[in-house]
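Sat 14:20. Reprocessing the chain from the morning session after the first attempt stalled halfway. Input below, unchanged.
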Amino acid sequence: MAFYTSLTEDDMLALLAKYDLGDLVSFQGISGGVENTNYFVNTNQGKYVLTLFEEFEYEEVPYFLNVVAHFKQAGFHVPAALLDRDGERLQTVKGKPAILVDCFAGDQLDSTTTNSCQLMGKQLALLHLAGQDFAEPRTSHRGLDWWRSTSQQLAPQLPNADAALLQETITAFDAFLATGTVLPMGTVHGDLFYNNTLFENDQLCAIIDFYNACHSWLSYDLAIAINDWCSDPDTGALNIEKYHAFMAAYCEQRPLTEAEQLSWPMMLQIAAMRFWLSRLEAWYGAIDDPERLALQHDPDVFKRILLARKAYTYSELALLDWITPET
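Finished this time. Tokens:
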């Protein structure tokens, strides 16, 4: 989360006037991310989070609000948009689409543990099962077409070896898709890094930031989470204890199909490539703006993860019978 659009007290008062959430006490920008503007908003009735969408048009946002509402109804602790006095969830602040949500207890993790990986593995599997009932399929705005076009656009700015590695990974995945292999799909989070969860006393309090949600392969979403929760950021290598804890907890709730198992090494690679590519795009897009550049995540973290995943054999990544259900 980050704050790019500066808001004044008058801006906050005008927004809160639309709600029955009490009187403004204080507000503060939230730092740490790269896509949206976020503020903590405190009133005499409670604490809330205001999000201004920096990349989406107004008409694009309702999909994400519907996703979160679906998961909330399914029993997950997620930040659903609050309704104003007119029953509206979506607002406009400084020309940007905006929402207010409840502020959950708990804090972002400084790092993951075997216990947090186990908890998240179970929750992600349950989230995937619940997401298969969501009736609005939407492809990712950073999906296949974006991978292909963005890698080509960035290639002239990249070292030859990096451009080749991106293209090699995308081409291999395109060849896999051409085989017609069917993998389970559903509505997924799309960005379930550990800083998109809140924990308190080793317990998961909430899953947040669903603004990369889309209809996609379930194992791809699992790979995104594994690459963040279970990797050494300095080397990209998997922490095997965390990896096994996360995967075992996930597969106990939703065992992977045979096709998912066989394609698992490639899915880990393509998930790493996707975030390396998005970080490269953000990095080079901010190269002439030192203030914005300082907010960007290091792209090389996911380059190291991608290279590490390519070095693993299938047997090293396989889980004990992939926790297949008893027959």
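The chain has two domains: 9-102, 114-323.
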